[in-house]
Specification:
The chain is mainly α and 131 residues long. The protein has one domain. It contains six helices and no strands. The radius of gyration is 16 Å and the shape is globular. It starts with a helix and ends in a 5-residue tail after the last helix.
Length: 131
């Protein structure tokens, strides 16, 4: 979202990002992501752990990133003048679009998930230097 805002000449800060996410209904988004994860798990045979769990998580990340990114792009393209209802509608539209894309990009999601260095990612997020 920071890069998208910068592409439109906006300098984002934490408050602005929080406001944007709130306007998109991030509470509803969490419920949505749970629903998406359950659907993805069911489509992968219902297994909760292992590769299926990683793929489901990667699929959820894809759906969320796609929906948030595309909604943010519209928000900034229209001069940050969209109402909360319009932002929520955009998020929902792009979420549905992303869910429909998952079968098409499943192999790419799987390839990326298999390359994921989860301990490395977690260490980076926590600010722990890797040796």
């Amino acid at each position: 979202m920071y890069r998208i805002g910068a592409d439109y000449g906006q300098k984002l800060d934490g408050t602005q990002i929080k406001d944007l996410l709130g306007a998109m209904g991030i509470g509803a988004a969490v419920q949505l992501l749970d629903r998406v994860a359950r659907r993805l798990m069911a489509s992968l045979g219902g297994s909760v752990g292992g590769v299926a769990g990683i793929l489901a998580g990667a699929g959820v990340a894809f759906v969320a990133t796609y929906a948030l990114g595309h909604a943010a792009k519209q928000y900034y393209a229209q001069g940050r003048r969209l109402s909360q209802a319009d932002l929520r509608a955009l998020f929902e539209r792009f979420r549905a679009e992303a869910e429909a894309l998952v079968p098409t990009v499943r192999e790419e999601i799987q390839a990326q998930a298999e390359k994921l260095d989860l301990p490395g990612v977690l260490a980076t997020v926590r600010g722990i230097p890797r040796s």
